[in-house]
Amino acid sequence: MTSFLIPAFLLLALVLVLLLRPFIFPPKVEATSRRQMNAAIYREELEKLEAERAAGSTNSADYEIAHAEMRQRLFQDTDEADDLSVLGSPKKTIIGICIFVVMLSAGLYFSLGDAFRIAETDNEKPMSQEAVEKMVTEFAGKMEKEPDNLKGWAMLARSYAFAASSLRPKMR
Questions:
Q1: Same structural domain, 74 and 22
Q2: Are 90 and 105 members of one domain?
Q3: What is the pLDDT of residues 92-138, one digit of tens each?
Q4: Given this model, what pLDDT does residue 27 score?
Q5: Average per-residue pLDDT in the chain?
Q6: What is the span of the domain harbouring residue 93?
Q7: Which of 30, 42, 46, 99 might form a disulfide with 74, Cβ 3.0–4.6 angstroms?
Q8: Do 142 and 109 fall into the same domain?
Q9: Chain centre distance of CA 66
Q10: Long-range contacts, stretch 159-162, CB < 8 angstroms, 24+ apart
């Protein structure tokens, strides 16, 4: 059982490290926040508005009204709360991912892969000599229908050797 649990825990640790890599090793490049992106968008819009005024397609009164509206929207859309909402809480995310992965893997293991039950069922049904002989004769019948299958004939020879060795009494 220990030979299974150690690799299972090592694989679980590997999965957690791979899932949590962005949180454990943060990127070297600073991410752009929503506030910075909004400021860049409004800067472009102000440049377009200035270009329209320079081209003469907008008079100065309309330009002043549009410029004031854009500044007002810029101040409304660039709150410090936007920076905080983008950052989030990596500790809560790490803890949540760890708990989710551990609970999911433990639940699946205990519902689908009970190693004790598998070991017990293997011990309950030992293969008898008659069962081995029956399987070898069925395989021989199959090989008679496929005479060109060289791998099958080699496997049949190994099966005969195994059946013959299991017939011999064991020496102590």
A1: yes
A2: yes
A3: 778 888 888 888 888 888 777 766 666 666 565 666 777 778 888 88
A4: 66
A5: 77
A6: 2-122
A7: 42
A8: no
A9: 49
A10: 159/135, 160/136, 162/132
- Please check whether residue 172 lies inside any domain of the structure: no
Which residue type occupies 10? L
How many whole angstroms separate alpha carbon 72 and alpha carbon 130? 90
Do 23 and 94 contact (CB within 8 A), yes or no? yes
Please give the full DSSP string across the chain, using - where no structure is assigned. Answer: -HHHHHHHHHHHHHHHHHHHHHHHS--SSPPPPHHHHHHHHHHHHHHHHHHHHHHTSS-HHHHHHHHHHHHHHHHHH--HHHHHHHH--HHHHHHHHHHHHHHHHHHHHHHH--HHHHHHHHHHSPPPHHHHHHHHHHHHHHHHH-TT-HHHHHHHHHHHHHHHHHHSPPP-
Residue 98 to residues 11, 113, 162, 168, Cα–Cα distance (Å): 13, 21, 49, 55
| Same domain, yes or no: 99 and 112 | yes
75 & 140 share domain: no
Written as six digits, the tokens of 94 are: 């790490």
Number of domains in the chain: 2
What's the predicted TM-score (pTM) here? 0.35
Q: Is residue 64 part of a domain?
A: yes
